[in-house]
Amino acid sequence: MPENSNQKLTSPPPTSELQRIRTIAQVIIAFAVVLFLLVQARFLLISLATAIILFSLTSDAISSIARVRVGPFRIPNWLASVVALLMISMALLSLSAIILSQVNTVLSTTLAYTDRAPQAIAAMVAWLGPDAEQSVLNSLSTLDVAGYLRALAGQASNLMQGTVLVILFVGFLFAERIRFNTKLENFFGDAEQAQKVSKIVGSIIHRVNYYLLVKTAVSAVTGGMVYGLALFFGLDLAGPLGILAFVLNYIPNVGSIVATVLVALVAYVQLADGTLALVIFALVGGIQFMNGNVIDPMLMGRALRLSSFGIIISLAFWAAVWGIPGMFLSVPIMVALMIVCSHVPGLRRVAILLSREGLPETAQDLEPRGPGARDKNAA
Fold this sequence. Notes:
Elements: H1 2-9, H2 15-40, H3 42-66, E1 69-70, E2 73-74, H4 77-113, H5 117-122, H6 130-141, H7 145-156, H8 158-176, H9 180-188, H10 191-232, H11 238-248, H12 254-271, H13 274-300, H14 308-322, H15 324-342, H16 348-354, H17 373-378
Helix pairs in contact: 3-4, 3-8, 3-15, 4-7, 4-8, 9-10, 10-11, 10-13, 10-15, 11-12, 12-13, 14-15, 15-16
C-alpha cells in the first residue's frame, strides 16, 4: 500500500490538460483585449475601414486609367491617383453636407409633429380599450423626443470630422499602393507566398466591390421609388424618407424593415388616416420585398456566398461594438473574414460555417479567369 501511494504521488501531472486550459485562457484574454481596443478606438477604426473600402472601390479604376494612352503619352499613375482622391473628397464632402442638411430638415419637421405624434400613436391601440390607449399616451408623453433629436443632431456633426479623416486615410493608401506587392515579397520572404496573399486580397476587393456596386444600384432604385411614393401621397418628409430608404438598405435584413416602418409611421402621424397609412406601409413593403428579395439576390448571384444566419450574427456583433456604422460595415467585414478563413487550413471550418452552402472559396477561385487566363498561367 505505501509503495502504491508513493507511485501516485510521484506520477507526472497531465500536461495536455494544463496546456489546453492555458490555451483557452489565452484565447479569452486575447479576445477581451481585441474587443476592448475595437470599442475604445471605434472612431478611428470605423474611418479606417471606410477608407479601405473606398480605396478598394477605386484602386482597379486607377490602374485602368493609368494604362490609357493619349496619343504617344501615357497617364501617370500619380496623376490618376490625385484625380481619384479629388473626386472621392468632393463626393464625400457633398454627401456629408446633404446628410447634415437633411438632418436639420427632419429635426425641424419632427419638432412640429411632436405634439400630435403621441395622440396619433396611442390611437393605434384604441381597439384594445381606453385604458390601453391612455397608458400608451402617458408613456409617450414622458419621452423627451426633442432632447433625443437634438442629441442626435449633435452627434451628426461628427460626420464631417470622420469624412476628413477618411479622406486622409484614402490619400495615404493611394500613396502606398504602388509599393504594396514589393512590401509583401519582402515581408514574407517568399514570392509564391506573397503572390497567394496578393490574390486573397484581390479576391476580397473583388467580392466587396461587387457587393457594394449591386447594393448601391438596388438602394438607389429603392430610395427613388420610396421618394416618388411619398411625394405622390404628399408627405412633408419625402426627400429625407427617400434618402433614409437608400441609406438603410445597406443594413442587411433590418434596414429595409426599419425604413418601411418609419415611412408608414410618418404617413400615419401626418395624414391621421390609418387606412391610408396601411396602404403606404403595404406599398413600401412591396417595394422593399421586390428589390431586396428578388432583384438583389438575382444580381448578386453566388458572389457573396454568405450564410443568412452568419450575416445576422455579424450584424448584431458589429452593431454592439461600433453602433450604426458597424451595421453598415458588417457584411464587407464578414466577406473578408470568410475569404481569409477559406485559405487558412486551421480556420477553414469557420469559413464553412460562414458560407451559404458550406462551400467556401477554394484555391481555384483565386486563379484569374477570362479568355487569356490559361495563356497567362502557362506563361
